[in-house]
Design goal:
404 residues, alpha+beta, 7-stranded mixed β-sheet, 31% strand
Length: 404
């Protein structure tokens, strides 16, 4: 807990019931979805830990709050503990006092001590969160006109989701995303909670059957707006021929939508279809990231990075001593006889030092190092071949179903 005596400001976590009710009141005043949306999200989360709810009081009255939603996010075969920041709100009567920044600073310390690796938040006020240390990493969505196309392929049928099919779609999700970077690890408990959360209720889910087996599912926003997002469309390899059919059945649920948007990795069947339809790329400037613990991040990435180096024709037979310098922090990578070690201290001998800022480093981890993009921007990094080997392009995607 931190306290500023002259203003009688206190920042802490683990609210009691009375304090939590005050937090819901603030959220109700700040967001049109109402207090019930936020209350259900916590009440229906069986893994909810009060430690993750942080708030500031002024003179004993709750005046601002920020929630941490713990997510386990994949980077290839590695999993990073991620603090997803949400439910950010301040009582209008106490704005301008820096309360939210005080909470975010305290949460950063907490996450570092609690074993988090990175943090992400979704925001439109970028400058506000930049001051607190989060960095915007733009992404791209794709939009196509909402037009009915194609028919029903032989052997395929689309049916609405029912809870009895939960294990089927869980298995499809796991197979499709087993090593897919940026995806959330959804265990059985997470899935059971997920279908009760408010975000799930704001969408429709359809299932694709082939010869009476569930082989794909799709989730679309429940909105009567001109642009509607496909939150996720995930399939087994054997269902590839039915993906377009499932997509159009989802589109038919939104006849008022002019465009159907999706965040798609390039290896997705729907990505190729979108390109055939001359999809319009739409910049999405929402996700902001912060490195919480550089050492723990790379310690967890060690086997994944070793695997990448071993599979890289240029680097596999080399011996490398690399220091990645990120601001005042650094991480040392030593690659010998196809084994990689990670440490926080340099060993003796000559080393290759690569300086990279925090924004770029997180971008490399999540999306991969884009040598062509760096060259086009006029900022090609030294030792680009090493960065390309450590951080090859990822078929990364974050599913909006996990939005926090």
């Amino acid at each position: 807990m931190t306290t500023t005596p002259e203003q009688n400001i206190s920042v802490t976590n683990r609210p009691g019931r009375e304090q939590l009710e005050q937090i819901y009141d603030i959220l109700d005043e700040c967001f049109s979805v109402g207090r019930g949306y936020f209350q259900e999200r916590l009440d229906l989360d069986t893994s909810y830990d009060p430690d993750t709810t942080w708030f500031a009081t002024v003179g004993g009255k709750v005046a601002a709050n920020v929630q941490i939603f713990p997510l386990s996010i994949r980077v290839g075969q590695a999993v990073l503990q991620t603090g997803a920041m949400g439910s950010v709100a301040a009582d209008p009567n106490y704005r301008g006092m820096g309360l939210t920044h005080k909470i975010l600073a305290a949460q950063t310390d907490y996450m570092r001590e609690a074993g988090y690796d990175i943090s992400v938040l979704l925001a439109s006020k970028h400058a506000f969160y930049e001051k607190a240390g989060w960095r915007l990493i733009p992404e791209t969505a794709y939009a196509v006109e909402n037009e009915a196309r194609g028919g029903q392929p032989d052997g395929y049928e689309v049916i609405p989701f029912e809870p009895r099919y939960l294990e089927d779609i869980r298995a499809i999700y796991e197979q499709f995303n087993q090593n897919r970077t940026y995806t959330v690890v959804r265990n059985e408990t997470y899935w059971k909670d997920l279908i009760r959360w408010p975000e799930w209720k704001k969408s429709d889910c359809l299932l694709l059957q082939h010869d009476h087996k569930i082989v794909a599912y799709g989730i679309i926003e429940k909105k009567d707006t001109e642009q509607v997002f496909i939150n996720e469309l995930i399939y087994l390899d054997e269902a590839a021929d039915g993906v377009e059919y499932l997509f159009h059945e989802l589109c038919r649920l939104r006849p008022k939508a002019r465009q159907i948007m999706a965040m798609l990795p390039e290896d997705h069947k729907l990505y190729a279809y979108y390109q055939q339809l001359q999809a319009e790329p739409v910049p999405i400037n929402m996700a902001m990231w912060k490195m919480i613990n550089l050492y723990s991040t790379f310690h967890k990435l060690q086997l994944e990075l070793e695997h990448r180096l071993n599979g890289n024709a240029l680097m596999a037979e080399q011996e490398l001593s690399i220091t990645l310098q990120c601001g005042e922090d650094k991480i040392c990578l030593d690659y010998r006889q196809k084994r990689l070690s990670v440490s926080g201290n340099s060993q003796s001998g000559s080393r290759i030092t690569i300086e990279v800022d925090e924004r770029n480093l997180i971008s490399y981890i999540v999306f991969g190092y884009n040598a062509e993009g760096e060259a086009e921007a006029g900022t090609p990094a030294r030792h680009a071949d090493i960065l390309q080997a450590l951080f090859p392009k990822q078929q990364a995607v974050f599913y909006l179903t996990d939005k926090f």
